[in-house]
Amino acid sequence: MVVGLVKGSFRFLRREVVGAYEIITFPAAVPAGYEKIVDPEFSWQ
To answer: What is the 3 state secondary structure string of 1-45?
Structure first.
């Protein structure tokens, strides 16, 4: 149970940081060769 809590907390934090990054940088043009930052792209995949 503790391991799951730690893993879930890390995944939550990672997605929050990536989301903030994407909100801040969305007006910028998409660079060539752009790939998704988090894999899987959606948490339910």
So the answer is: CHHHHHHHHHHHHHHHHHHHHHHHHCCCCCCCCCCCCCCCCCCCC
Question: Has this prediction a pTM greater than 0.70?
Answer: no
CB 15 within 8 A of CB 42: no
What is the rounded CA–CA span in Å between residue 44 and residue 21?
21
Is residue 32 classed exposed, middle or buried when 0-12, 13-18 and 19+ CB atoms within 10 A define those classes? exposed
- Taking only the tens place, the pLDDT of each residue in 22-34 is 899 889 888 888 8
